[in-house]
Amino acid sequence: MNEFQLTAGEIKKEDTGRERLTSSLLERINAVEDKIKAYVIKPAPAASAKKNSGLLGAIPVSIKDNICVKDEATTCASKILGGFKPPYDAEVISRLKESGAILWGKTNMDEFAFGSSTENSFYGATSNPHNLNYVPGGSSGGSAAAVAADETIISIGSDTGGSIRQPASFCGVVGLKPTYGRVSRYGLIAFASSLDQIGPITKNVEDSALTLNVISGYDPKDSTSADIAKPDFIKALGKDIKGLKAGLPKEYFTSGIDPQVKKSLDEAISVLKAKGVEFIPISLPHTEYAVAVYYIIATAEASSNLARFDGVQYGYRQINKEGIIGMYRATRGNGFGQEAKRRVILGTYVLSSGYYDAYYLRALKVRTLIKKDFDDAFKEIDCVITPTSPTAAFRKGEKIENPLSMYLSDIYTISANLAGIPAISIPCGFTKEGLPVGLQILARPFDEETLFKTAFSYEQATNWRKVKPKL
Ligand code: GLN
């Protein structure tokens, strides 16, 4: 086995490969990156660890390019942030550095995390390592592709409506969206502040727990950070799941689901049943409103968050003859891509007087009902099991001209963000075209341990992780 194929857990256990690790990864990047295009900024050959001893000592971790790294370009895959170098580290970056991790380049994404395919990047699209004609998912598609193609050991992404879990599912890797408030958002360039959450994309469940141990915990610099006890997530691995009650929401297993995804899910359910998990049919009755509610709240918050990119404070500026207003217009007109503009227009519309009550306020009320559906369900069950996405990866170009069909592909992931609960996607099979399928597990707020023990137990009983893309 090559060093670049190892997980962080394996590297730590054996203490093998550390000397050769970065050179082996750089060779790998040289060999495959032209096909994948996972990085906006490739790792520097000189990148080296400060210490070997921390939780992620000498482990390369790539970072989605919407997370601030002091004095290093942070672009959000947008032209408008060209030339911007943050004067500070995001809290997750400080914690990663403290743990001895090697910061391993900045990964590609949909501009400002708007999208589900990583095609909305100013720097060009990323390819799915399992089939280069297919998208890697999005918006953390660069992170998921980099992990799947063994161009990094771990990657950090962000998830507002599924942007960690859906690309993890499309690329056959593990993606975790922690509970809202579990990981500090300080230094994450905001998309929709009430939904955004940073989390790990990894090759296996153990590395996910290990990374969450490093990046989670209270941070007074983020006013929504939760000041609650942080368990050692590694201890959840290997715990018995016999007697665990899992809900199967009928709204997620409807005609919209691809038969091959359904088949993989059914097989995964049998594996978990054999481990003693009890499956209970449940209903989450407001699921049908989730996509509409999400695209009102997310665009409203995005339009407000993007107002700061005006050509004065950050990055790119376009001057013209029409004074300061002309400069704002030219900067934003040339600096934002199509999808960013669409979201600013939509978000401004739903927040404008006369429409606020009809759209934004109503969406907030339905969001409360969606959260209540989960609260009610979790009185009877310990976790919910669903597919991560109704289909496996789609072809490049298939949905880019039709934003609505792109938005609908998030149908299974966005409820977790609206409800603020944790969710994980793990590989559970392949389609006959050789594309990965993902299984999603959702749990009560701050109960990531149930996700880890269930996911780990399933992973131990299956071999999906070992199926590598042929590159
Ligand atoms: N695909 C969703 C969107 O475009 C989710 C994005 C995300 O989670 N950042 O809004």
Describe the structure.
The protein has 471 residues and is α/β, with parallel strands linked by helices. The chain has a domain at 3-243 and 390-466: Amidase signature (AS) domain (Amidase signature (AS) enzymes, Alpha-Beta Complex). Helix content is 35%, strand content 13%. It has 14 helices and eleven strands. It has helices at 8-14, 18-36, 91-98, 141-148, 165-171, 205-215, 259-274, 290-305, 323-335, 338-351, 356-377, 403-408, 414-419, 448-461; strands at 39-41, 60-64, 102-107, 154-159, 174-177, 197-202, 245-249, 278-282, 383-387, 423-430, 436-443. The protein is globular, with a radius of gyration of 21 Å. The chain binds glutamine (GLN).
